[in-house]
Amino acid sequence: MRIGFLFGYDIGVISGCLIMPDFIRRFGEVGANGQPFLSSSRQSIITSLLSAGTFVGALGQAFTSDRFGRRGSILIWSAIFTVGVAIQTGTEFSIVQLTIGSMDLFQGLVAIVPLYNGETAPKALRGTILVLYQLQIIIGLFLSYVLDLATHKIGNSASWRIPVGFQLLLGLVLLSGIFFLPESPRHLLGTDRRDEARSVIAKLNGVPEQDTLVDELVEELEFAIQAENEGGKATWAECFSTRNNLWKRTINGMMLQFIQQLNGQNFYYYYGDTFFESAGTELSPYVIQVILGGVSVVGTVPALHLIESWGRRKSLLTGALMEAGCSIIAGLVGHYTLAPAHTPKALLTKRNRAGGDTLIAFAVLHVFSFSIFWGPTPWVYLGESFPLRVRPKGIALGSATNWFWNFLLSFFAPRIAARIGPLILLIFFGMLLFGYVYVYLFIPETRGLTLEEVDEMYRAGIKPWHSTDWKPHLGEEAHQQAVKHLEARYEEKAPSPISP
Question: Could you list the residue ranges that cross the membrane (predicted)?
């Protein structure tokens, strides 16, 4: 969970720094009037290169998590992150050093965490635990906004070095905690380390290693892993093969991440202050960020319950409709009622202010709805859709898709908004309607299934709209096989009866 918190903080902290005077003086340009300024191109480069680095890290974790294990991979990417933060914090005037530090490839961690949580969590709690990870991300984002608000009036480099450098402390705490993290039992069994797997399973279930529950779980996992891994070690190309419908799982994971990034919420996070300024609000951009961050935290809490009570499909379908409604209302109201950007507040009409209040209200509702539904659910789905042999690669492709489109959004959105203004929200409206249709036709329900049963459902070719009522057979077969093996083992160990 510390990883999620640190990731959220890493995303949010730089946005506040971009408008701090000392930051602009050090990393901006000098205008014709002799005053320093941070051009939109430099802002987009600094912001978008973070996504570019995370794109590389998301793919890179697929190699490290198989080679060094889930635990070892988390350690490697945590160390890379800490070094990147040190580079950022220590820079004086070099924008090159700043951007290199921001490309700390932290997403290697973000891709590993859904993988690790999906493999270690019980099926009844897997969705809730993955949503808790999302909640930690949002809390980290919120804290970064609060710290930016607290330091932005400092007149020297401490205004931005304190919030940026705070990540060093968080990174060191993360590194120290990794040594207490158990390895994934599925990875251990997949690499023929049965004794270690038994030890981890015992600890995760709070029972002695000799307990029959451990024997049963090991047998079930071995049976299921053998069934899902028939054919040997997978290649990247196999992620798109027709075998066991792997191509469907990979495309679904990538499409959910693509749709999530074009929900519109990140546009509010990155550039909402411009619209809110036109709406006539007296709030500063820092306060607006804190409000949006607080709404996101509150919105993620209900998801802890809904992800298991409603399931994945219903959450995505409901969220798509709610956010689409918010987008079209905010977009049309903003287009027809708001004054041009940077209009003095004294010149705003009653119609401008009423439209601005409506825009702000539906922007907040949009972010709130995203936090409940489309924020956590695609990550939950991504973490539970793939068989063991392709799981790191499948999750890597989904995570990389997320950050590829995050990069494009952060780079091009300000340019598009400069041309069409609030009508950019209609693009997100169209994407959300597309998302509703896509989820209905292609995304099956995975609530209450083990990772091996999810694999069985895909192999069985169950239609997504029938998946809610589908009952698995592999889990029962694996359980019966495990019981037979255990009974046979105990019979071999039992003493022979003494003849009279």
Answer: 6-24, 45-63, 69-87, 128-150, 162-181, 286-307, 319-339, 359-382, 394-414, 420-443
Predicted confidence pLDDT, tens digits, the chain (500 residues): 456 677 777 777 777 777 788 888 887 777 777 788 777 677 767 766 666 666 666 666 667 777 777 778 778 777 877 887 788 787 887 776 776 666 554 555 666 666 677 667 666 677 777 777 778 888 888 888 888 888 888 888 888 888 888 888 877 887 777 777 788 887 788 778 888 888 888 887 778 888 888 888 888 777 767 766 665 566 788 889 887 788 999 999 999 999 998 998 877 766 665 566 666 666 677 787 788 888 988 988 898 889 888 999 999 999 999 999 999 998 898 888 877 766 677 777 778 777 778 888 898 899 999 999 998 899 888 888 887 778 878 888 888 888 788 878 877 877 787 788 788 899 999 999 999 999 999 999 998 888 778 888 988 889 999 998 888 875 555 556 655 655 565 555 555 444 44
Separation between Cα atoms, residue 216 and residue 224, nearest integer Å: 12
Residue 94's region, left for phi above 0, alpha for psi from -120 to 50, else beta, is beta
DSSP state of 36: E
Whether the Cβ atoms of residue 260 and residue 116 lie closer than 8 Å to each other: no
Widest Cα–Cα separation across the chain: 110
Domain boundary assignment for the chain: 2-181+229-457
- Report whether CATH 1.20.1090.10 matches the domain 2-181+229-457: no
Tokens 């969705």, residue located: 127
d(CA 43, CA 24): 10
SS3 content of the chain, % helix, strand, coil (to 5): 80, 0, 20
Phi, psi of 36 (to 5 degrees): -70, 145
CA distances from 240 to 128, 191, 243, 263, 482 (A): 29, 24, 9, 26, 32
Model pTM?
0.74
The residue to which tokens 């205008």 are assigned? 31
Least Cα distance to 244 among 455, 398, 449 occurs for: 455
